[in-house]
Structure formats: structure tokens, C-alpha cells
Design a protein that fits this description.
255 residues; alpha/beta; six-stranded mixed beta sheet; four-stranded antiparallel beta sheet; globular; binds adenosine-5'-triphosphate; binds magnesium ion
Length: 255
């Protein structure tokens, strides 16, 4: 446990929600059924893997769980509370953080400023936001790049800034959309060490989208598998690994 990460500025409370639930979610885009009746529950102490082939509906589901996409039917519940009608900002304030498949950094701002703006948006003072941002950057291994312009960073560092920016909120849950995409095996291993520490260091549940099955099997407590918008399997890594539907969905895919 790293105390520096827990020294939240006065007035900033850590979100308390214990579980994030998707209940019978359906998302329809015009004629396309992107999500068909998917239910899942992420708990505060775990790393929950969300996997499936391209176009399976993973990002759409994360969008629903963070207020970026309204389900056609079904509900998202946070600590039992119905979030219907909440905007992304309200999800953030209630302790739901996310990263995006594409970096979405402010490219002209420094790395530190990119993290600070999130903290400022939650009501921290400038000084507190700066100090907390620096602690997060140190935690993701980017302390020495705090003053670099974000647009000049290599792709792999951009991913880490995205995670620092999510964790600066002291969220109850963080949803990571393919944080290791495009990384070498060594960079991916390194990032996974950081991610695996999140539940203990921050008392924060993690939903992790990742295509590499070896990585997912190694770091997740439980795994949920989508294919074509439907749940095809859910369970422990060992159960998923030997599941006939999962093997068939992944046949011919890397990993
Ligand atoms: N805004 C949108 N409008 C129309 N169709 C969409 C929209 N967003 C996603 N889709 C479609 O919904 C389906 C699910 O897409 P989604 O991005 O959720 O998949 P994914 O599992 O995240 O895929 P990937 O692994 O490629 O990131 C796909 O067929 C996609 O083309
Ligand atoms: Mg996606």
C-alpha cells in the first residue's frame, strides 16, 4: 500500500460504490444489434476481463457503463442505484473512470497538465491537483516526463498518461479499453504489473478489455466473453480457456 496515492486533498472523498452492474443491456444502432441482453457485475476488489473478437460490442458496453452510450433497453446500476439518464460527468463524479481505445490526450498540453485537468474538474485546488497528478505520474512510471508536451510522447507512454488521468480521480472502478494495444510483449508485461496493482493500491475494481488471451488469462479474476453482441461465456480464467464457444469464437485469431 502506497500512502502517497491515498493522501487525497481535503474535500475530495474516495467514491464508495461497491459494485457496477449491467442489467440486460441492449444497444441497437439503426438495424444493427451491437449488444443483445448482456448482464454482468464488476466488484470493487477484482480485475474483470471483457473479451471478444473485433466488433463483439466491448467498447459499446463500456460506453454504456460510463454514460457515453444510452442503452436501448436495460439498466446500469452503481451500488444498486439506477444510473439511467446520468451523463458521463456524473459517472465520473460517482467514481467511474475510463480510458479510451484512442488516447484522447490534449496534445498541446504537458503530460502533468493532462492529468491535472481531470483533478481540477473534480474540484481540487490547483496545488492539490498538481501534487496529486505528480503522484499518479510517478506511479505509472512517467515522473520524468511530466513536463513533456503530450503530443510528443510515444504511443505506449500515452496509454500510461491515460491511466494516470483515470486514477487521479481515486475512482471506485476503472474501465480500461485495450490499454496494451500496440505494445511490445515487454511493454505489455510492464503495464500489466501496473494494472494488477490497482485493486489493492486504490481499492478500485478494474474492467479490462484486452485481445491477448495469454495476458487476460494471467491477470483477470473473472472473464466475460462477448461475440456478436451476445454473452457466449463467463467464469474463471480456467473455465474460459477450455470453453468450446470461446475457442470457436477465437479460432483463427491471434493470442
Ligand atoms: N456509433 C455507432 N454507430 C453504429 N454502429 C456502431 C457504433 N459504435 C459501434 N458500432 C458497431 O457496433 C458493433 C460493436 O462495436 P464495438 O466498437 O463495441 O466493438 P468492440 O468489441 O469494441 O470491437 P474492437 O475489438 O474492434 O474494439 C460493431 O459492429 C460496430 O461497427
Ligand atoms: Mg473496442
Amino acid at each position: 500500500m502506497n500512502d502517497a496515492l491515498h493522501d487525497l486533498p481535503p474535500g475530495i472523498a474516495q467514491a464508495q460504490a461497491a459494485e457496477l452492474v449491467a442489467e440486460s443491456i441492449v444497444v441497437q444502432f439503426q438495424g444493427l444489434m451491437a449488444i443483445s441482453d448482456v448482464s454482468l457485475k464488476v466488484e470493487r476488489h477484482e480485475i474483470f476481463g471483457l473479451i471478444g473478437p473485433n466488433g463483439a460490442g466491448k467498447t459499446t458496453l463500456v460506453n454504456c457503463l460510463t454514460g457515453f452510450q444510452r442503452p436501448s433497453t436495460g439498466r446500469v446500476l452503481l451500488a444498486g442505484e439506477d444510473t439511467t439518464g446520468w451523463r458521463p460527468d456524473k459517472f465520473r463524479k460517482q467514481g467511474i473512470a475510463r480510458t479510451f481505445q484512442a488516447g484522447r490526450l490534449f496534445r498541446d498540453m504537458t503530460v502533468a497538465e493532462n492529468v491535472e485537468v481531470t483533478a481540477l474538474g473534480l474540484g481540487m485546488s490547483r496545488r492539490a491537483a498538481h501534487e496529486h497528478a505528480m503522484a499518479m505520474l510517478a506511479w505509472v512510471g512517467l515522473a520524468d516526463k511530466a513536463d513533456a508536451v503530450a503530443g510528443t510522447l510515444p504511443y505506449t507512454d500515452e496509454r500510461r498518461v491515460g491511466i494516470a488521468r483515470a486514477m487521479v480521480m481515486s475512482p471506485a472502478f476503472v474501465l480500461l479499453d485495450e490499454p496494451a494495444a500496440g505494445m511490445s510483449d515487454a511493454e505489455c508485461d510492464d503495464l500489466m504489473h501496473t494494472i494488477v496493482a490497482i485493486p489493492k493500491e486504490f481499492t478500485c475494481g478494474v474492467l479490462l478489455i484486452e485481445h491477448n488471451m495469454g495476458v487476460i488469462m494471467g491477470v483477470c479474476d473473472r472473464i466475460h466473453v462477448l461475440d456478436g453482441g451476445r454473452t457466449i461465456a463467463q467464469g474463471l480464467p480456467a473455465e474460459i480457456r477450455s470453453d468450446a464457444n470461446v475457442i470457436s469464437a477465437y479460432l483463427g485469431m491471434e493470442g
